[in-house]
Amino acid sequence: MSEPIxxxxxxxxxxDDLMVLDGIDFExxxxxxxxxxxxxxxGKTTFARLLMTLxxxxxxxxxxxxxxxxxxxxxxxxxxxxxxxxxxxxxxNIGMVFQHFHLFPHMTVLENIIxxxxxxxxxxxxxxxxxxxxxxxxxxxxxxxxxxxxxxxGGQKQRVAIARALVMKPKVLIFDEPTSALDPELVxxxxxxxxxxxxxxxxxxxxxxHEMDFAREVADRIAFFDAGKIVEDGPPSEILYNPQAPRLKxxxxxxxSTQASPE
Amino acid sequence: MWDWNYxxxxxxxxxxxxxxxxxxxxxxxxxxxxxxxxxxxxxRSSNKIITTVADSIVxxxxxxxxxxxxxxxxxxxxxxxxxxDPFTAGVIGLGLHYSTYLSxxxxxxxxxxxxxQWEVATALNFTTKKTWTRIILPQAIPPVLPVIGNYFITMxxxxxxxxxxxxxxxxxxxxxxxxxxxRYTEPLTIVGVLFLLLSYPASIALRQLENRVTARYS
Lengths: 263, 218
Ligand SMILES: Nc1ncnc2c1ncn2[C@@H]1O[C@H](COP(=O)(O)OP(=O)(O)O)[C@@H](O)[C@H]1O
Ligand SMILES: [Mg+2]
Description:
The structure holds two protein chains of two kinds.
Chain A: E1 6-15, E2 18-28, E3 33-37, H1 44-51, E4 59-64, E5 67-68, E6 71-73, E7 79-81, H2 84-91, E8 94-97, H3 109-119, H4 125-138, H5 154-166, E9 172-176, H6 184-200, E10 204-208, H7 212-218, E11 221-226, E12 229-234, H8 236-241, H9 246-258
Parallel strand pairs in A: 3-10, 3-11, 8-9, 9-10
Antiparallel strand pairs in A: 1-2, 1-4, 4-5, 6-7, 11-12
Helix pairs in contact in A: 3-4, 3-5, 4-5, 5-6
Chain B: H1 4-16, H2 18-43, H3 48-62, H4 66-76, H5 86-111, H6 115-123, H7 128-140, H8 145-158, H9 170-181, H10 185-217
Bound molecules: adenosine-5'-diphosphate and magnesium ion.
Magnesium ion is lined by residues 44-45, 177 of chain A.
């Protein structure tokens, strides 16, 4: 098997005295799509935000393509906290799509998408516009290039946010409940876009979701979180149809019974 | 009582001093904008010492009278080897004083930008500097432009204070004329009218800007 693209080693996270992640080991292989499921408050978001460097790690290490994310090795091979420069270098492999989109309200849709390639990567503006338009086509919003985010529906906003993350060509793309803030009738269009990207293959994905059907369709693996630990981790068929851990069985039962099927 | 001939005779001289008043306002305000933004960024620093020091300086300046500060800069600084001409001293005084108000305005503008914008900037790997210049400030400033404009007009109307440190702006010019002829009514009235003629249209323009901003950001 090839080297994992992401590797969590005994990762622990505290918020003050509250332990939120409890010594987690976890790997993502290149191109692999992993869904994270579990009860609210079990630590899924925090787990992903550590990888995006939006929360600071308390203990343990995370490696991205063999480089430490939060640490650097000094000349003696000892780990010390990463410099801003090192953090930025490793972070450039990771992208994230947020529950609440966070589009730049002062920029048009196309400007939203080309902003980071031009400002962060220094890509030529003409080229960035070309890439940006291609990406807009991919998410089905070519006609909205010159629109401001305030004029878009939630589903359209999220598709722009996905395009904006994708043009940076991250090796790992995190989705944190990308459809939870959407009206039910807009969920489908966003999930379809994510499925498309997933089918194109090369990007690894970390998908936090409550949409079990979606997880089953898209994910190569599902990891079940409970109380800051990954309690069970395996292919969708195992996790969904042959759960072992009592907490997972409970979760799935509760989920299936409260989740009114939309169709 | 009112002598039109005399009024028209002194008008050109007073009006010619408008240049000093306006340039003191403009230069002072630019200084206030730059310093104000610097205070805001220093106060937001993650270094506790920097934050405390900057915050104390701002509070001190904001809570002492501008006139006292002007006297200090003009009459006390020379004792420490820093002699400034009235215009420079006046502009520094105005700029410093108003920077503390503008710092507060910038702070409220910046706080109105949600944490999600900072997070997405990190996720897209923006540097701190680019996060400020491309993401945060372009959202923070437009909504507070009307307030900033208000301070501009207020500052303009406070420039006569600079006559206290011997700057010959329009009030000082009028006073000088009055002192020579013993007629103050016309020169002082002209000063008042000139201020009104400039600040009233400015406040109307500002009202329009405010309406545009409200329409855009609500
Ligand atoms: N910034 C924070 N400060 C303090 N506690 C937090 C913070 N973020 C999350 N938590 C707590 O960490 C726990 C895990 O939260 P989270 O990672 O959001 O879980 P999930 O995404 O699975 O719902 C919860 O108890 C939550 O209240
Ligand atoms: Mg969450």
